[in-house]
Automatic annotation (TrEMBL):
GO terms under biological process: iron-sulfur cluster assembly
Official protein name in the record: SUF system FeS cluster assembly SufBD core domain-containing protein
Entry-linked SUPFAM superfamilies: Stabilizer of iron transporter SufD
Native source organism of the sequence: Streptomyces vietnamensis
Domain SUF system FeS cluster assembly SufBD core residue range list: 137-364
Family recorded in the similarity comment: Belongs to the iron-sulfur cluster assembly SufBD family.
Family annotation (PANTHER family): PROTEIN ABCI7, CHLOROPLASTIC (PTHR43575)
Pfam families in UniProt: SUFBD_core
Length: 393
């Protein structure tokens, strides 16, 4: 698979199958961040942040016509000892600490939820079992807000599992105290008609470590917007993602790592596979290194494997650097079909073509699956990948 670097914005590869582009300017939003939905104009699809999204399929989340209805979603939390789980009202001061909505849907979610979930891990607590949050769609429209907060030097793993059918707009906040370590695995395993739009905000404290693994399989339209800021020097953020886009699905992942503090690190790696007519994956990776963020070390990567004709990828890594005093910065984007040499090597050793293709795809995703660190979740996701591949044979 050929890697594309330093391609002028708007360049194309692989004909109508995929589009890869990158620039040296981070994507700008059409309105400044705000908690008030009235501060954002209704998008029409010409805006930079909406130009890839099929607005007509958002079921009214973008224009205010979607209102909470039906059973919405059922949220259940399983937490080990030492964790506080609360349901709070809109006036709770912990809400919104990690970040502000940057588009109309995120602001609509913030303006519309009634109760928020807050999960708190006490200072210096080191959890030996993961916190599991189940978000199950039961039909209808829902708006949500979830906060995960770790005290100083606490350590935790959180799994957020989305299943069922719903139209959901939500904000998720991760607040890490100094020296804390948080790993979050967010799985989007929706039914085929679900719509899910979410902004994930992480505020990483001094010398804290944040790892995010976003896994997207199901849904009609899924658009996830992870964002990272640093509250002190020495913070580290790793953002990993895995997506498998089927016929007719639109899966969009938009990331921003805002290096606003000196001597912090970030590493981004997202991989996707696509199959079927009108399968569409979008990956936007923005990294901003502000003038005051000396000593930054950052890298971002997106790779896509196109399994059939009729699929499309838009991959746009953006890097903006406002200071020359950095440790390192780079980005790369690559999109391609199966490596014929790999397939030939396997088939020459007696492995049938279908099995050889499965082995190649498993190997493509293996590094990211291992980042999850939870055997039961890893096995489930590998089984899901196998099922997707079986469907394409």
């Amino acid at each position: 698979m050929a890697e594309a670097q330093n391609i002028p914005a708007g360049s194309t590869t692989a004909g109508s199958i995929a589009v890869a582009a990158e620039s040296t300017v981070a994507t700008r939003m059409s309105a400044p961040p705000s908690f008030d939905v009235a501060d954002f104009p209704v998008p029409h699809g010409r805006e930079e942040e909406w130009r890839f999204t099929p607005l007509a399929r958002l079921r009214g989340l973008h224009d205010g016509t979607a209102v909470a209805s039906g059973e919405g979603v059922k949220v259940e939390v399983e937490a080990p000892e030492g964790v506080t789980v609360e349901t709070v009202g809109r006036d709770d001061e912990r809400l919104g600490k990690a970040g502000t909505p940057v588009d109309r849907v995120a602001a609509q979610a913030y303006s519309s939820f009634e109760k928020a979930g807050v999960v708190t891990v006490a200072k210096e607590a080191v959890l030996t079992e993961p916190i599991r949050i189940s978000v199950h769609g039961q039909g209808g429209v829902a708006f949500g807000h979830q906060v995960i907060e770790l005290g100083a030097f606490a350590e935790a793993v959180v799994v957020i599992d989305h299943t069922g059918d719903a139209v959901l707009a939500a904000n998720v906040d991760y607040v890490l105290g100094d020296g804390a370590k948080l790993t979050v695995v967010s799985v989007q395993d929706w039914d085929e008609k679900a719509v899910h739009v979410a902004q994930h905000n992480a505020l990483v404290g001094r010398d804290a470590s944040f790892k995010s693994v976003v896994v997207t399989f199901g849904g009609d339209v899924v658009r996830i917007h992870p964002r990272v800021q640093y509250a002190g020097p020495g913070g580290e953020a790793e953002l990993f993602g895995l997506y498998f886009t089927d016929a007719g699905q639109h899966q969009e992942h938009r990331l921003l790592v805002d290096h606003n503090t000196p001597h912090c690190k970030s590493n981004v790696a997202y991989k996707g596979a696509l199959q079927g007519q009108d399968a569409h994956a979008v990956w936007i990776g923005d990294v901003l290194i502000q003038a005051k963020a000396e000593g930054t070390d950052t890298y971002e990567l997106n790779r896509n494997l196109v399994l059939t004709d009729g699929a499309r990828v838009d991959s746009v890594p953006n890097l903006e650097i406002e200071t020359g005093e950095i440790a390192g910065a780079g980005h790369a984007s690559a999109t391609g079909r199966f490596d014929d040499e790999q397939l030939f090597y396997l088939m020459a050793r007696g492995i049938p073509e279908a099995e050889a293709r499965r082995l190649v795809v498993r190997g493509f995703f293996a590094e990211l699956v291992q980042q999850i660190g939870l055997p039961d979740v890893q096995e489930r996701l590998l089984a899901k990948i196998e099922a997707e591949l079986e469907a394409s044979v």
